[in-house]
Design brief:
- The chain folds into three domains: 2-86, Zinc finger, CHC2-typedomain (DNA Primase, Chain A); 113-180, no CATH class; 187-293, Dna Topoisomerase Vi A Subunit, Chain: A, domain 2 (3-Layer(aba) Sandwich).
- Helices cover 31% and strands 22% of the residues.
- It is built from eleven helices and 15 strands.
- It has helices at 2-6, 11-18, 64-72, 76-86, 126-134, 139-145, 202-211, 213-219, 235-238, 252-268, 286-293; strands at 24-26, 29-32, 44-47, 52-55, 60-62, 116-121, 147-153, 156-164, 170-174, 177-180, 187-189, 195-199, 221-224, 243-247, 273-275.
- The strands form three sheets. A five-stranded antiparallel sheet has the order 1-2-3-4-5, with helices on one face. It has a five-stranded antiparallel sheet with strand order 6-7-8-9-10.
- A hairpin with a 2-residue loop joins strand 9 and strand 10 (177-180).
- The longest helix has 17 residues, at 252-268.
- The protein is globular and about 50 Å long.
């Protein structure tokens, strides 16, 4: 029974909670840069319809239990147990065994397949600053909300942009890396206001801070989900506000969350939740809109602002 229930866990949702976002989506096929190594081209495919994965780089695949077994180097029974525990958690923070010795029958220590934060400091790395410039985020905006983070993964050191969540974990980004450290959680910027803007990822939040700095700094609270998996779990926090403005991505799973919010409006017959994605409906997300609007001979629209 435990294996049957564990196999029902959606792989796409699980990967999102681990901090992995798809590089591209083709109908029900989700392509990722492999969770098992660093790579430039996404070669890890998840069939959401069949809920199975296949790593073309290694020529191996399987179901959700097989994935957790490989990711945490544990047996199938332990993997199934971890998956069931995850279904009731607010975050995703599995930790491999921490034994320092490995006698016969004991679990080994596998710290190399965990992200281990080594240092956090103000943003200054030129590669990261250039990356921010490519995404049309001014350095002074990024430095208000982000840090420069060093971490180890598979014994390799990385330096990336870090965006901290409520639990002390980080969303981690660079031109060649996208992931997160444990524990995974939302980021809530509380200014004591009765309105809140909700963003799927922190680059969308930074983009809004570029376009409407006064709104972000003075006039509204902000929630950055850091994963769509936290949308329903954040309902109680969103419900503390009179108005909730949603700036979610345009892909199907995000559109479904916006529809869920519309149903919540119907429950109380009040328009508490407002879907603001129509402002950037021809773009993947808010940051893609900002990048396009910043191209030569194009002026940013003045429609996106208060009154959202």
């Amino acid at each position: 029974m435990i294996f049957i229930e564990a196999r029902k866990m959606d792989l796409v949702t699980l990967l999102a909670q681990l901090g992995f976002a798809p590089a591209k989506i083709q109908r029900q096929d989700y392509w990722y840069k492999s969770p098992f190594r660093n790579e430039r081209t996404a070669s890890f495919k998840v069939s959401r319809e069949r809920n199975i994965w296949y790593d073309h780089g290694e020529g191996a695949g399987g179901n959700v239990i097989d994935f957790i077994s490989k990711f945490y180097q544990c047996d199938a029974a332990e993997a199934a147990k971890k998956i069931l525990e995850l279904q009731g958690d607010h975050g995703f923070s599995f930790h491999p065994p921490t034994q320092t010795r490995a006698a016969a029958g004991e679990k080994k220590e596998y710290t190399q397949n965990k992200i281990v934060i080594q240092a956090v400091r103000p943003l200054q790395n030129s590669v990261l600053l250039n990356y921010l410039q490519e995404r049309k985020i001014p350095i002074e905006i990024a430095q208000q909300y982000c840090k420069e983070v060093d971490f180890l993964l598979y014994k390799k050191r990385h330096t990336v942009i870090g965006f901290e969540n409520q639990a002390g974990g980080f969303e981690l980004r660079s031109p060649s890396f996208k992931g997160s450290s444990s524990p995974k959680d939302v980021t809530f910027l509380d200014k004591g206001k009765q309105e809140v803007c909700v963003f799927e990822g922190f680059f969308d939040f930074l983009s809004f801070a570029v376009m409407r700095p006064k709104i972000v700094s003075e006039l509204t609270n902000c929630i950055v989900l850091n994963s769509l998996a936290f949308f329903e779990k954040s309902r109680a926090l969103m419900e503390q506000h009179d108005k909730v403005f949603l700036f979610l991505d345009q892909e199907q799973s995000a559109r479904q969350k916006a529809q869920t919010a519309a149903e919540w409006n119907k429950e109380v017959n009040v328009t508490k939740y407002t879907d603001c994605s129509h402002f950037y409906r021809h773009h993947e997300d808010l940051n893609a809109w900002l990048v396009q609007q910043s191209q030569p001979r194009q002026k940013p629209s003045t429609r996106l602002g208060r009154g959202m």
